[in-house]
Structure formats: C-alpha cells, structure tokens
Amino acid sequence: MVPEQLLSESDRKFLLSLARRSIENYANGEPAPPVELKGLSQRLRDQGASFVTLTCHGYLRGCIGTLEPYQSLTEDVREHAIAAASQDYRFPPVQTNEIKDIKIEISCLTRPEPLEYKNPDELLSKLRPNIDGVVIQDGMRRATFLPQVWEKIPDPQEFLEELCMKMGCRPDLWRKKKMDVFTYQVEEFHE
After folding, report:
1. pTM of this prediction?
2. What is the C-alpha separation between 71 and 141, in angstroms, rounded?
C-alpha cells in the first residue's frame, strides 16, 4: 500500500530536481532554492511527510525525514534534502566534490497507524516485510525504519532488534516490554 494519491511522473521529477538543487546549494554555501507553490499540482501543495535518502557508490550517505506532515510536500522534500546532506549525525556534511556521486531517493509517507498486538510473537506475525515502515516508541524515545530497510534486514526478529538499537535500547527490549508500534507505507522513487 502506498499513499492514497500517487504522484505523477512530472511531480516525481520535480521533487528529485528540487532535492538535488537544494543539496547543491547547501554544499556551495548558497540559500535553499525558492519554492513557489502556485502552479504546482495539488499533491505537491498539500501537506506531506517525506524522508530523503542519499547514497554514494551504493552506501548510505545521509537520511533524514519526518513521520508527520506539517508543511507542503514540496517544502518538506527541500528541507529534508538539505538536512540529509548536512545534519545526519552519522556522517560529515556533504562536500561539493561528492555531489556528482550522490544518488537521491525520496519516500513519501502515509500517516503512521498504531499496530495493536498482545505479545511479542503476535507482533512478529503482524509485521509485513517489504510493505510496512515500522516505528517503535518507548516513552520519549522512538526510531523508525523505512520499508526499504527490509531489503537489508528481511528477518522480522532481527528487524525489531536493529530498530531497538537504533532507538538506543537493548536489542531484546521489544520482547521484554510492550512498546507502542506504528506502521506506515511509502511511495518511493529515486534518480
């Protein structure tokens, strides 16, 4: 399942181009490209939540986004493209000489929905690999993996363990404590 209203091919091209220009401007010390919402499709003007993932030579180079929409999808992609290039704590900021090797992937998210479960085994059985993105939350701490992460971690148990570690917890926390779990789907496209 993907967001109810799919993006047109021209909307996808526009967002990828905007993301690339935003990263280039950032690396060159220039302001973010202006966005004029007038004249764009309704889908691009509507509020939307996105993640922008950067790879370089097939390896992750940055990934930042949001789970809840709070601005137009266009502004959200621009903001998270710059953030993926400059604020992912796992990587130094993108430099101008890297831009030619960077590939951009955009994921537009549906709203996360609570996943009801009674015990760890039921949680495992309700996860839908390669379909759902998963959010786990324990108090103020939370972490998410996009559905694309299932390609690298196809085992649901390992998926949850890695997600717990990403949240800064023990990998078996999901077995020992009932946490809030949410799922969402994405419309993913890339250069």
Report:
1. 0.89
2. 24
